[in-house]
Amino acid sequence: MNDATTKGIRFGRIAAMLPVKDIVKAHNFYTGVFGFVKTFQNGDPVGFMILERDEAELHLTLQPNHKAAPFNVAHMMVNDVDALHAVCQRYGLRIIKRLQDKDYGLRAFVFEDPDGNRIDVGQPI
Questions:
Q1: In this structure, what is the dihedral angle of CA atoms 44, 32, 114, 24, given to the nearest 10 degrees?
Q2: Which end of the chain has fewer CB atoms < 10 Å from its terminal CB, N or C?
Q3: Which tens digits make up the pLDDT trace of 62-80?
Q4: What is the pTM of this model?
Q5: Which of 3.40.50.1010, 3.30.450.20, 3.30.720.110, 3.40.1640.10 would CATH assign to domain 71-125?
Q6: Domain residue extents for the chain
């Protein structure tokens, strides 16, 4: 189905919104472990934050009663999945799906961030 009224609209980036129980802790994790940089925050106390690195963008939203979903909430493409997997292991992150070559053309794994958000990481084979 293709709605004719959207035919001329070009879609741009879409960013993952990650719910977190402690936005400072989440900020410190994503900036300290993965090298993201905070580019925006809103609220007093802060309830929303944008983090960026290269072409990736994550939006953090403070949700003190957050219960992690039992499925992947974001997919992130990288140019060296093996190196990022090693970083995740070094920091003791829970690996949900082991690093492996997939039949759909990606080398991939899934990890959980400190709030239990599952992130699928991939690199084209």
A1: -10
A2: N
A3: 999 999 999 999 999 999 9
A4: 0.88
A5: 3.30.720.110
A6: 15-64, 71-125
Neighbours of 85 (CB within 10 A): 21
- For the stretch 65-123, pLDDT in tens is 999 999 999 999 999 999 999 999 999 999 999 999 999 999 999 999 999 999 999 99
CATH code given to domain 15-64: 3.10.180.10
Distance of CA 42 to the CA centre of its chain: 20
